[in-house]
What we know:
Blueprint: E1 2-7, E2 16-22, E3 25-32, H1 39-43, H2 51-54, H3 63-78, H4 85-118, H5 131-151, E4 160-161, E5 164-165, H6 171-192, H7 197-206, H8 214-225, E6 237-240, E7 243-246, E8 258-260, E9 267-269, E10 281-283, E11 289-290, H9 292-298, H10 302-311, H11 315-340, E12 359-367, E13 370-379, E14 382-389, H12 391-396, H13 406-411, H14 417-426, H15 431-435
Parallel strand pairs: 6-11
Antiparallel strand pairs: 1-2, 2-3, 4-5, 6-7, 7-8, 9-10, 12-13, 13-14
Amino acid sequence: MKIEKQVLTRVEGEAVLHLEWDKGKIIDAKINIPNSRGIEKVLEGRPFMDALVINPRVCGICGHAHLIATAIALEKVLGIESISTKAKIVRSVTQLTEMVQNHIKWFYFFVMPDFVKINENLNEYKPFKGAQWKKAVSISSEIVKVIALFAGQWPHSSYAIPGGITSTFGEREVFRAKNYIKKTKDFFLKEVVGIDGEEFLKLRKKGNFEDLKGDFGRFVELVYENAMHNIGKAYNRFLSGGGLYLCLKPSYKKGKGRRCKFNVEEVKELNPPDYTKARPVRYKGLPYETGPLARQLLHKNPFVKELYSLYEDSYLTRVSARVLEIWEILSLIEKLLEKLMEHLDEKSCEGEINKQVSGKGVSFIEAARGTLIHKVVVEKGKIMKYEIITPSQWNLGPRCNKYLGVAEKAIIGLDSKLKAEMVLRSFDLCSVSTTH
Length: 436
């Protein structure tokens, strides 16, 4: 038996993977996130509106999700029960846009370069030099312009405030946003799946993921070639802020399952073990996986249902769900932009902000990596307590007294360090979000 310490690269922040080996197999894995900035403590005692500027800095990748979660939580504190349809749509469009650019970067910058280590002939995916890598850089830079049109900047936008949004815009901005979405859809069809839209929809209807081409098709081939289609399985339990899906074998494969309403009061943050600064999160005492796989199972995406029926919550299924979610999100953004045209004359922001308010607020939304929860207590306009539970805590958080963390469990049984890193990256490792 041997114990190995692996400092991880291509991570937002710092992370260390501790592996315990026996007879060529990993028998234990610990994910150590050694640093924490203490954002929640920084917020204490400050005017509650400061959270709108500070919280987007929790993460440079999903800061917009933190902004929206903050705005909603503060609306609960202030008793603002509704905002204009215009503001709701724009918040959704910008939040979803951030998810798309996130998914693209993750697939091309985190997932595919790992296969270059296995096969040096995959020149098109080499960082900084590969043709596909460069195309991904270009398109991810294009789509964030949608956020800039409505939010003024990205990352670290602060345009969403209690009562709505601060921006004003017209038909011109909406048409430009539609154009960026169309460009990204074209990229998805040409580069990611390698077929036209009509053929893609036919395959989607049947769930025929193996007939997809492009970079995703190459990914599937590489997974099969390296016998990685059944690795990286965790607990087979999935959580999404829009609902909770408990997948029970083999009922889900027969088209059934068990779904219940998500109760945020059942979410508990536990004390961290001694090897990490990250705190484990449990729902009704159990670890759950959150993110695109959970969302697409809830969404009943035919591709993902087929993948899940074959390989359950594996590395292949998890990565595929996130890549294929790109199309679902882009299609939703298109519909939202069409609807926005009908509400351009509405106010961007409504309601009063009482700067001496006292109250509590809770929000939960979907970020790129999964369900994000914000809880705040305000007294006479000052933040007394702020709690942030990130998707990375669900997926990459550590063990508790009863259960391993989700990613820790998914690594057990693997036979190489590279596979351990690849499975870890399938959850999109972000240390700054995990500890914040």
